Amino acid sequence: MKKLLLTVRKNYFDNTVEFSKLSKTFLLWAISLALVYITNVYLTKVTGLEVYGKYTVFISWVSLGSMILTFGWDGYLIQKLPQLLGSEKGKAGGRYLVEKALLTFLLLYILLGILLVAGTFYKKDLLGFLEADQLYLYLTLLLLFSLLALIKAFLKIFHIVTQVQWFEDVLKPLLLFGVIIYYYYSKASLSLSELYLINCLVFGGLLLALLVMTVRVYKKELVSPEQRYVAEKWMKKCFYFMCIYLGYSIFSRMELLFLGYFGRNADAAKFQILLRISDIVLIPDFLFNYFLPQKFSYAFANGQADESKALFRNSSKTILLLQLLCLAGVLSIGYFYLQSFGIASGEMYRLLAIMCTAPLFYSLFGSSNLVLKTSGNERYSFYALLVVLVLEAAANYIFIPGYGLPAAVYISWLSILLYTFLLAVFLHKQLGFTNSVTRHLFGGK
Questions:
Q1: Rg (CA), the chain
Q2: By CB distance 3.0 to 4.6 Å, which of 124, 298, 312, 320 could disulfide with 132?
Q3: 297, 374 in Cβ contact below 8 A?
Q4: Distance between CA 91 and CA 82 in Å, rounded?
């Protein structure tokens, strides 16, 4: 295992990523998965599937709202800052962009807050996924989710990953687990408002911890001379990133949102459980995404096209191999996982198997989305999402009312296939990148 991790680090990550950090990343992911799994099992026992379904829909809307408020800055900073850190003038430009990001976020948050408060004042059921007295909880979580997205993007640029993981992947789920266990054994009732408030407190603590690290890095890495300006249309760039992240968030949650919209809360809860299990197959992709964006950004900033192509090809193979191992593990224990939620059946296991094969498309077609975003071609990621979202929304609207959960699973699977294929097409046309799969489809080396 040690030899495998050393090889992975050598071929795919920056030299600044020490072996100890890489191995810790794997370990912390495993701890996080175990904690999230156990917490969700007990949470469904405490609240029931209906309430759990409403909770997952609510959190999905929080995530979508945070995509608007961050305005794509989390993606643009990862792309742009590595290009600026090579000189004092560039560092000043980096500080200028960070300040612009915070100012943009604050203005959008204030505007959205005013609109939501005014809207619910005139129509209390304006937001169907929450009660009128839960609006302040929604706005609080919007604030926390948005700031956390910006902070994590900033820290990732400077390779501060393991420290963030300790707080986000261990301490945060551990706190949530402790609270849910208390409610379970004390047999106390847990309302949705209380559940949202618990999330506010836990995410608030996470934000404070990461904010301390961010301030230290900000003062150390970014200088502040009189001249602070970046000659680039950052608003246009950020808008594309916002559309990409918002679109992808909708894309990954659309079936869940439609199930909630049509009042199928139990199906929404089951879909969320299936989604959580299928995320295990995505672990290798998520893990590589902790480090690959910076490596691609630095490579493109230094004109290292051949190195970028080799990194794209080799990482696709490694991610696919690791995903196949994860898939085998999930399919072997998936039925028992479903049993722990009380929803095990032959039909549910079949739907689980379908959901778990969809993440393989991300490695079969390569990290196309990542390369497009770090190379300045993010608009093509947006185009691919736009096409898929329109078709996916139409399919959900037509089939979910009549077929429910099975329709949601099939639509999700087909949408991921189409999305990853379109990304691979755009990447090949713009940069000529191919891997062992796409070179047979498009030609090339």
A1: 22
A2: 124
A3: yes
A4: 10
What is the reported pLDDT for 93? 64
| pLDDT confidence band for 17 (50 / 70 / 90) | very low
Asked if residue 239 lies in contact with residue 71, where contact means CB atoms within 8 angstroms, the answer is yes
Which stretch of DSSP H or E encloses residue 107?
Answer: helix 88-122
24 contacts 162 by C-beta, under 8 angstroms? yes
Type and span of the H or E element at 113: helix 88-122
Please give the structure tokens belonging to residue 63.
């995530």
Neighbours of 58 (CB within 10 A): 22
Domain residue limits, the chain: 2-442
DSSP assigned state of 134: G
d(CA 354, CA 370): 25
Q: What is the mean pLDDT of residues 26-38?
A: 76
The answer for residues whose C-beta is within 8 angstroms of residue 302's C-beta and 6 or more apart is none
Taking the C-alpha atoms of residue 265 and residue 256, their distance in angstroms, rounded to an integer, is 9
Cα–Cα dist 407/262, whole Å: 13
Burial environment of residue 313 by CB neighbours within 10 A (0 to 12, 13 to 18, 19 or more) = middle
**Cβ count near 174 (within 10 Å):** 15
pLDDT tens figures, 388-415: 889 999 999 999 998 888 999 999 999 9
